[in-house]
Amino acid sequence: MARIVTVAAAQLGAIQKADSRQVVVARMLDLMAEAKSKGADFIVYPELALTTFFPRWYAEDRAEADHWFEREMPSAATRPLFERAAQYGMAMSFGYAELTPEGRHFNTSILVDRSGAIVGKYRKVHLPGHAEFEAQRAHQHLEKRYFEPGDLGFPVWHFLGGIFGMCICNDRRWPETFRVMGLQGVEMVTLGFNTPSANALVSGEPTAKRIFHHKLSLQAGGYQNSTWVVAVAKAGVEDGHPLFGCSIIVDPEGEVVAESRTEDDELLVHACDLDATHFGKQEMFNFAKHRRIEHYGLITSRTGVILPSE
Ligand code: ING
Predict the structure, then answer these.
(1) Residue 165's domain spans which residues?
(2) What is the pLDDT of residues 27-63, one digit of tens each?
(3) Which of 165, 191, 262, 292 could bridge 181 with an S-S bond, Cβ 3.0-4.6 Å?
(4) Which residue's CA is the closest to the ligand 1 atom numbered 3?
(5) How many Cβ atoms sit within 10 Å of the Cβ of residue 197?
(6) Mind listing the pLDDT tens digit for each residue in 201-225?
(7) Comparing C-alpha atoms, which of 161, 301, 154 is closest to residue 221?
(8) DSSP 3-state assignment of 124?
(9) What is the CATH number of the domain that holds 170?
(10) Distances in whole angstroms, Cα of residue 254 to Cα of each of 87, 193, 258
């Protein structure tokens, strides 16, 4: 019997520095109502869904950026999301900046079940960009300044009758992300992203090339681990800085089955059959049958490149 999960990818358009969390949550609730009307079981929002993509702004004192972070979850501003989702019986996932009671800063996403309980947390492992102001860049990308690398690894959870995992934005560019979840049997990976339309170091790089790399990473991750992938953008022009859209849903054979058309608030809805992951896991990507881990040692023993001796 098919295990159908109807997923709503809830892309958000631009969030300006001046926009309050309350204004953003109202937009998220509108998308949730649309998802409900279209029969969705699960709604997925972007990375850092509650605020503008603040890592583009340099602050000499890191504590000046703490107002972008949530000290508790649900927070007062997000509680309406949890209450409405539970009222709808809809599961949800969204990303936010997490400031822990111990004072640690993470780029985090959560998995919330149909009752409104947080059942999973992921903290972004692969932080792109840099920690200090770099004048040569057309725009800053200071995730290494404001966040620590995630300390939870790449967990998966029994969720909605299947095996679900999360990652965030730049994680999609590192195949280890998908493979570690694949080795745990993942059937659906969700990720939010905020990806600048322009390359800060290579002026003139076409946005189309950046979107190609974005889709290439997601389609490869889905295909090579026989899993669904739901990728949801924060898009649009934020205080003059463009982020591309291209929210997509990828099936376990790597095909794009749904794609956003705008850079605004936009909902993609697709009925995902988790049983569609079985054939790939049993045949082409039957890891137990085909992988040869005795040859893979460098992947975890070596961080950077060491060239062979001449
Ligand atoms: N954003 C970008 C991403 O990986 C980036 C950063 C863009 C890195 C392009 C390298 C090239 O999609 C986030 N938030 O990770």
Answers:
(1) 4-301
(2) 999 999 999 999 999 999 999 999 999 999 999 999 9
(3) 165
(4) 170
(5) 19
(6) 889 999 999 999 999 999 999 999 9
(7) 154
(8) coil
(9) 3.60.110.10
(10) 34, 19, 12
Ligand 1 centroid–CA 113 distance in Å is 29
Instruction: Give the position, in ligand 1's atom list, of the atom nearest the Cα of 210.
Output: 9
pLDDT in tens, 140-191: 999 999 999 999 999 999 999 999 999 999 999 999 999 999 999 999 999 9
Q: Whose CA is nearest to atom 7 of ligand 1?
A: 195
What is the distance in A from the centroid of ligand 1 to the CA of 221?
16
Rounded CA-CA distance 209/85 in Å is 37
Domains in the chain: how many in total? 1
**Which pTM value belongs to this model?**
0.98
Residues with beta carbon inside 6 Å of ligand 1?
128, 141, 169-170, 173, 193-196
Q: Is 18 part of a structural domain of the chain? A: yes
Q: Residue 309 falls within a domain, yes or no?
A: no
| Mean pLDDT of the residues in the chain | 97
Q: Are strands 105-112 and 91-99 parallel, antiparallel or unpaired?
A: antiparallel
Q: Do residues 241 and 57 lie in contact, with contact meaning Cβ atoms separated by under 8 Å?
A: no
DSSP string, 205-272: --HHHHHHHHHHHHHHHHHHTT-EEEEEEB-EEETTEEE----EEE-TTS-EEEE--SSSSEEEEEEE
